[in-house]
Amino acid sequence: MARYMEALTVERGGFRIKVPESWWEFDVRPESRDDSIRRMVNDRIAQHPELAQYKDVYNDFLRKAAADAWKSGALYCGCMAENFGGDTPITGSVTVSMVGGRNERGEPLSTDPSVIASQLAVKEAKKEGDSWRKVTTVDIPGVGPAARTYGIEDIAVPGDALNRTIRAVLMQTYIPVPGQEGKVALVGGSSQVLDLADSFFDIFDAITSTFRFTG
């Protein structure tokens, strides 16, 4: 999975991030995403005809990822859907959201990474196969310190009326937004390919380390 080091810089209002060149990047707005995804899949298959057998898999995965990103309030979504010789593509995604909050007194919540980290819950696996979560702080080059969680977690399906969850490799990094009290950029990486958790942690860390504020 070393190909992820080839990078493509993607810019959005207020930030930029580098994603692997082979990943899929598109507008998550409902009015444009389906056409955008269909064109991208067709273009990719035209360039690599051997991927034609995965056309439906790509379309379904990318549409679901875009819809989930929109429902969660993400400003950006980049997706990996690659075949490394197996029967089905290996998939994962990275989203960027701007989030904030206030306490019961109406005051903005602290964005100090050490404070955020102290408020995030660690979860230990009680037996093999259980979900787990670790909490730490990291330094984003050119940006500064940030709080982070990573692990194998059961996450809610956005907008699901039955409140169902899916188990996924998950990394979330909370990066304070300069000059905006109480607001952080939340860079989230997830994949349902649990057997490759360590590889995805490396990929998500590498992508998050390229995050920069602009403007």
Features:
3-stranded antiparallel beta sheet; 25% helix; single chain; 7-stranded antiparallel beta sheet; 215 residues; Protein Transport Mog1p, Chain A; 4 helices; alpha+beta
Compact description:
This protein is of the alpha+beta class. 25% of the residues lie in helices and 36% in strands.
Task: Characterize the structure shown.
- By secondary structure, the chain is an alpha+beta fold.
- It has one domain (2-213): 3-Layer(aba) Sandwich (Protein Transport Mog1p, Chain A), CATH 3.40.1000.10.
- The chain is built from 4 helices and 10 strands.
- The chain has helices at 30-47, 55-71, 113-119, 197-208, and strands at residues 7-12, 15-20, 24-25, 76-82, 90-100, 132-140, 144-156, 165-176, 183-191, 212-213.
- A hairpin with a 6-residue loop joins strand 8 (165-176) and strand 9.
- The longest helix has 18 residues, at 30-47.
- Mean pLDDT is 88; it is low at 1-8.
